[in-house]
Specification:
The protein contains four helices and two strands; from the N terminus they run αααββα. By secondary structure, the protein is mainly α.
Length: 86
């Protein structure tokens, strides 16, 4: 994927990596990574979801974090493409 991105040129890559939307990609992916490493999904209030106590809820939340991060990644690609091509 990285090699294919070079085909768009340095302007696109600069816009993609400096974009403020990068924050919306990293936070959900880092939360999913943390959840996979520790075995628990932190929540705003209440007890965190544990992999051993509630596996279904745990995996749904991890998949949701990965999915939201992926959607934001595609959105960042689209916005970067639109900015570079105007």
């Amino acid at each position: 994927m990285g090699i294919g991105a070079f085909a768009f040129g340095p302007r696109f890559l600069l816009q993609f990596f400096i974009s403020p939307f990068q924050f919306f990609i990293l936070v959900p992916w880092l939360m999913a990574f943390y959840s996979l490493k520790t075995g628990l999904v932190p929540v705003k209030s209440g007890e965190p979801f544990r992999r051993d106590k509630a596996p279904r809820v745990y995996w749904i939340n991890v998949a949701f974090c990965v999915g939201i991060g992926s959607v934001c990644f595609v959105l960042n690609l689209l916005i970067s493409w639109l900015v570079v091509n105007r």
